[in-house]
Amino acid sequence: MNANKRLEIFTRLRAQNPHPTTELEYTTPFELLIAVLLSAQATDVSVNKATKRLYPIANTPQKIFDLGVDGLIPYIQTIGLFRTKAKNTIETCRILLEQHKGEVPRTREALEALPGVGRKTANVVLNTAFGEPTIAVDTHIFRVSNRTGIAPGKNVDIVEERLLKFVPNDFKLDAHHWLILHGRYTCIARTPKCWNCMIADLCEFKQKTPLPENV
């Protein structure tokens, strides 16, 4: 895909949604960190349901740490891998309290040192909470990048590297959100809605889905 196509794609995505953001519900960087940590292999909807119960009771490192693993589990047990996530969350809170004065660190190295926080989670926090032009590559973004030809790659690291290289600078801050929303609602996994896609004429996916007969 050439640079002119990429520019037009992101121009259209921005025109449709000028101020995109995560669908996870949060009010502080810490709430976002925990929500993203809980969202691994889970839907944003399921995480939001859990945090709506949790955050009115405990929404700081100290308050969640005071719950302990057994106290936290009832709030998040509807989320997949909740036992592991409960342990990681409590340990993350301990590290934040002991090493960062209860604040979410603003460097990738410090974020990735937290239990359960990998590169993708760190990228989300850096981008959404702190306004860094990072791009977190999840399954949606990996699929969209490869299927459209925006930034094809064999693994998430290559796709991230190519997105950072190819996405025009003016669009890098919000590219993560545009691509994930596009993958979540239009360029879906099994049967992409090519017939209802605003960038279909620019997309290099050859087997585009025709308009269904019942639509």
TrEMBL record:
Residues 38-185 form the HhH-GPD domain. One of its GO terms (molecular function) is endonuclease activity. It catalyses: 2'-deoxyribonucleotide-(2'-deoxyribose 5'-phosphate)-2'-deoxyribonucleotide-DNA = a 3'-end 2'-deoxyribonucleotide-(2,3-dehydro-2,3-deoxyribose 5'-phosphate)-DNA + a 5'-end 5'-phospho-2'-deoxyribonucleoside-DNA + H(+). Its EC number is 4.2.99.18. Binds 1 [4Fe-4S] cluster. [4Fe-4S] cluster binds at residues 187, 194, 197, 203. It holds the Pfam family HHH. CDD domains: ENDO3c. Keywords: 4Fe-4S, DNA damage, DNA repair, DNA-binding, Endonuclease, Glycosidase, Hydrolase, Iron, Iron-sulfur, Lyase, Metal-binding, Nuclease. SMART domains: ENDO3c (SM00478), FES (SM00525). The keyword Thylakoid does not apply. PANTHER family: A/G-SPECIFIC ADENINE GLYCOSYLASE/ENDONUCLEASE III, ENDONUCLEASE III. DNA repair enzyme that has both DNA N-glycosylase activity and AP-lyase activity. The DNA N-glycosylase activity releases various damaged pyrimidines from DNA by cleaving the N-glycosidic bond, leaving an AP (apurinic/apyrimidinic) site. The AP-lyase activity cleaves the phosphodiester bond 3' to the AP site by a beta-elimination, leaving a 3'-terminal unsaturated sugar and a product with a terminal 5'-phosphate. This is Endonuclease III. The lineage of its organism: Bacteria, Pseudomonadati, Pseudomonadota, Betaproteobacteria, Burkholderiales. The gene is nth.
